[in-house]
Design goal:
single chain, 313 residues, mainly alpha, two-stranded antiparallel sheet, 13 helices, 4 strands, disordered N terminus
Length: 313
């Protein structure tokens, strides 16, 4: 913070501060010409120096916290010492996000790769809980459909939505769409998850869940969230209806991310090539075979609601 202030003083006044934070009156920029501008610059300089001295005094007395970029500063920014106040602030932001209608980025980061950005040990006891908390805070369930699924779970399985989610998350995911909220909600939620689980230690080894590299990646994920690379675009449909189950609940097909590309064309083409060392002609024929069959499947599905189960010739 102090370095940023000093740079601001140098840029606006053309004077270079000394080692003790003061400014040498004899050192000035050649571009400073009029006496009026000198008076204005001196007044602004005095105000800036006064703010710096007041902030330094507060830091010395323990009334303010210096701006650090380490793990301790990360936890302090979460307000973990005042847990109830943090939750109330987060609830207020979720109820009325100030940037719900703002468009940050049209190009989005794939959520699957976002999860894999933070390296954690598979043997750490907190890893499963961390991944579940990150999933639920990053991707929010549709509240209306969630209530319908909750009622069906109580009537047919004698359990709640949360219990069924823990038992069979795939069953819940097929019947309840999710969305990624605006940065004003998402950043605070991710900070909370990282702060709670990041410093947690393993019962056997005593190692924390996040090492130095994991903390760097966590900050990178937060930066992506701040810039809007994770939040959903308004008006873009990511879920399509895929039928109705025996309980009367609609099932949905998610088109989020690159899962269909990785499991569809890439896997199919990779299996065809394998170790054949194919030439150009085989490459063209394989790609033609794939996109022809894919187009027939898509045509039958979208136009007639049928699955193309026949040969594509």
């Amino acid at each position: 913070m102090v370095m940023l202030k000093v740079r601001s003083i140098t840029r606006h006044t053309g004077r270079t501060p000394g080692r003790n934070g003061t400014v040498d009156a004899n050192t000035s920029d050649d571009r400073t010409s009029s006496p009026d501008s000198d008076d204005i610059g001196e007044e602004a300089l005095a105000d800036e120096i006064g703010m710096l001295e007041a902030h330094a005094e507060q830091v010395r007395r323990g009334q303010a916290t210096p701006d650090r970029r380490g793990e301790d500063a990360f936890s302090e920014s979460l307000g973990l010492t005042d847990f109830e106040r943090f939750l109330s602030d987060l609830e207020e932001i979720i109820a009325s996000p100030p940037d719900a209608d703002l468009v940050y980025q049209k190009v989005k980061k794939d959520i699957f790769h976002t999860f894999n950005m933070i390296p954690t040990s598979v043997h750490h006891g907190l890893r499963p809980g961390f991944l579940r908390a990150l999933r639920d805070h990053l991707m929010r369930w549709d509240p209306n459909i969630r209530e319908l699924v909750h009622e069906v779970c109580q009537q047919n399985f004698n359990c709640s939505f949360e219990t069924m989610l823990a038992r069979n998350p795939r069953w819940i995911a097929d019947r309840c769409p999710r969305h990624i909220p605006a940065p004003s909600i998402l950043v605070r939620a991710l900070e909370f998850v990282f702060g709670v689980f990041g410093h947690g230690t393993n019962a056997r080894s005593g190692d924390p869940l996040f090492n130095h590299t994991a903390w760097q990646k966590a900050h990178a994920v937060l930066q992506l969230a701040r810039e809007g690379y994770l939040s959903d675009n308004e008006g873009v449909i990511l879920y399509e209806e895929a039928g109705v189950d025996q309980y009367g609940l609609r099932k949905y097909d998610c088109s989020r991310g690159t899962n269909k590309v990785e499991g569809g064309p890439h896997a199919d083409i990779y299996r065809k090539f394998g170790a054949l060392h194919a030439g150009p002609r085989y490459t063209v024929n394989s790609l033609t075979d794939h996109w022809t069959f894919y187009n027939l499947q898509a045509y039958a599905k979208h136009m007639f609601g049928l699955d193309w189960k026949y040969h594509h010739s």
